[in-house]
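Readers of this paper often ask what the protein records in our data store actually look like. This encoding replaces a full spatial description with a residue-level series of whole-number codes. For reference, a complete record is included directly beneath this paragraph.
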Amino acid sequence: MKLVWKKRLFTSIIISLIIVIVVYAFLIITMDKPPLAEFKSCQVLLGKAKRVNADVYAPEYYRDAERKYQAALIEWKLQNQKVFYSRDFSKTKELIITATLKAQEANASSGTNKDSLKMKYLKEVELLKSKLDNYHDVFIHLPLKVNVRKNYEFGKLSLEQGLNAFGKGDIMLATKRLNEGKMKISVADIEVNALLKAYFSDFPKWQNWFSATVRQSAQNTGYAFIVDKIKHKGYLYYNGKLSKEYDVEFGRNWIGDKQHSGDKATPEGMYRVTKKKGSKDSKYYKALLINYPNEEDYAMFNTRKRQGLISKNSKIGGLIEIHGNGGKGDDWTAGCIAVTDNEIDEIFSRMSVGAPVTIVGSMMSLAELLN
């Protein structure tokens, strides 16, 4: 009995150590990182500004850049004094981005005349407009934090104020407003780019799913439904060719794969229609039930449990459908794909039990979307 007790104690200690190591590794992986690249870029710009005598010809910008740079260093040091998992470098990022923009302004203002400033301003306005248009057209549906959306809105307002000042001949105020907008949008872009870079790591897999589904449609001379999450579009294919497209709505946490029941996420993968529910069988007018979870979903779910990424008590969930009651202009479902009642009528009439339904993050690469 004593030997058994010792073995149990030893086993408990080993399990506890493993749990501590896993938790510690997770905290390290997910901890916030300082903006090293932004500091390096700012240092280069400050050096260039000094060489062109920006401290003489554009002293205000140069002093602001130096002050913001020093403030960013201080904030960085303050965060480094905290326990690693509680560090938050968001203020450091904003300060160093502001310093970088001020250093850019110092370089631009030193040795340039008003006409060249006008040309530069108009060029940067077009770039900023393009970025804002891209955000609105492509990424407006991203489940972003409130402060990120506020930064984009601030950037849009600053651009409008700058153009108003430019129309009145005040190029310096116009440039100031432009740079204020650029700073806020740059802060937001850091969050958005990090989110999208992680998400699009699955793009090769999405490409394969898309190609395989189109081939199935052509080989079977039948219908298939492909969902593009980023664009919030559903595409109906027939005989391997695009037949029609629809606006679609998802669960609130749609970016990324579904991980467990109740996470408000829409799954990603290759599925099939398993049941057609008429208006009497569905609370969403009509619905096409798909075979989530499939074998791949179960395998991934169990892997996430083993790795401690989700609770061991989590359930995988199910009852994922393409259903009606959509057209709300928002992501509101529990993880399903919603279209309008008229559209589900159309899709319902064409898609049979067994028809392919494939859900991907994007049918276009991130580079294509950004350009």
About this structure: The two ends are 70 Å apart (CA to CA). The CA atoms of residues 34 and 165 lie 36 Å apart. The first strand starts at residue 223 and ends at 228.
